[in-house]
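Consider the following input, taken from an annotated entry for Ketoreductase domain-containing protein (Cladophialophora chaetospira).
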Amino acid sequence: MLDKIAIVTGGSRGIGVAVAKELAKRGAKILLTYNAGESSARSVVREIEEAGGEAIMVQAEGTDRNAPSQIVEVAVNRWGHIDIIVNNAGYGENALLQDLTHESWDAMMDINVRFPVFLLKAALPHLGKAPRIVNISSVAARSGPPMMTAYASSKAALEGATRVFARELGQRYNLTANCVNPGPVATDMWLRDTAPELLAGWEKLQAGTPAGDRIATTDDIAQIVAFLASECSRWSTGSVVNANGGAVYS
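Applying the prediction step yields:
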């Protein structure tokens, strides 16, 4: 992965941090995006640089329609092309259908679907020789948990878009596009924001997870993403790769 240029959205915490560090460890140069108010992005860049890697950060809001082109412009101005895009930035808000609002629906569709789709669109003229697109989906796209109408719908839409990318862009750009579908991951967001009633349901799922009675670590997911971003995954495309310990099969 030496000299590969990678964009990792939502790279200032959780899965995004783990992915950015793993790709940097394998020799990639990293552009990570972060939201306003997320000061942790600077520490991630510093850690990568102290380990001998190269990283820059760009503030980008998933609801900003100009953000995709601005991200690509920064990466291309710095490094000339883009080899890897990891669409990790995401937004979730739990609500019963009776309480779902248009604003919540729009935010999740903007951040979880429109942002990654238009980021790839903006990057098309600048892709390298064998680009890798890795989109972070969720078990929610398949399992349909209560209170996740908008979130599950957005992740299912992202999986559908990924299959289109694989077919429409594959031979033209020598490109692969895949999703990974984590279940619960031990991030600050999961531990802080998950409703108690949802936690109880996930604990039952965890007990029956074939790979182990636990939730994932961020490194569990980062290793799978790094494989899909590498040359070793060249014959896998249009897939939703199990990244949840077998709790939900693709």
